[in-house]
Write a structure and sequence with these properties.
Elements: E1 9-13, H1 19-32, H2 41-49, E2 53-60, E3 66-77, E4 80-90, H3 99-113, H4 128-137
Antiparallel strand pairs: 1-2, 2-3, 3-4
Helix pairs in contact: 3-4
Length: 153
């Protein structure tokens, strides 16, 4: 990707929840899943305030509005420090301009600094562009089964 196709953004950590953050998540979360309900202000305060979470925001240089987000969870378990990237989403207007890559690379730096040896993420096969991005960055597809237990079934 050339500099001319990259959107100029600043990657910052969310440290407080305000109306702009609530509005950004309300706009971005439905793009991840049609069944997902955007988090409330209270939910976002819990997410941003959790010591294991880092919520990254991509802010456009042309006015500073939020064009993408990623949540990184880093936590200790008996076998070491684990890191998971969750809910990476970029606004349609900023897609294909390197925003997702910038968010992901920033999350990798944070995970390494916190002692993680690996970082995990999942991505639906239908998200071809996202999967190509993760492979380009250096993620390797694992041979594993992913299981989900639903309390709603």
């Amino acid at each position: 990707m050339t500099d001319s196709t990259r959107q100029r953004v600043s990657i910052v950590e969310a440290t407080a929840v305000d109306a702009e953050l609530v509005e950004a998540f309300a706009s971005l979360v439905p793009q991840l899943s049609s069944s997902a309900v955007p988090p409330s202000r209270e939910n976002l305060q819990e997410i941003v305030g959790a010591p294991c979470n880092t919520v990254l925001l991509a802010r456009a240089h042309d006015g500073g509005h939020i064009v993408g987000t990623l949540t990184l969870a880093v936590f200790r378990i008996p076998t070491g420090v684990r890191a998971w990237i969750e809910d990476v989403v970029v606004s349609p207007a900023a897609r294909g301009q390197g925003v997702g890559e910038q968010l992901t690379r920033h999350a990798l730096e944070i995970a390494r600094a916190k002692g993680a040896r690996t970082v995990e993420l999942t991505s639906r096969a239908s998200r071809e562009t996202a999967n190509a991005l993760y492979r380009r960055i250096g993620f390797k597809q694992r041979e594993t089964n992913v299981y989900r237990y639903s309390f709603e079934d």
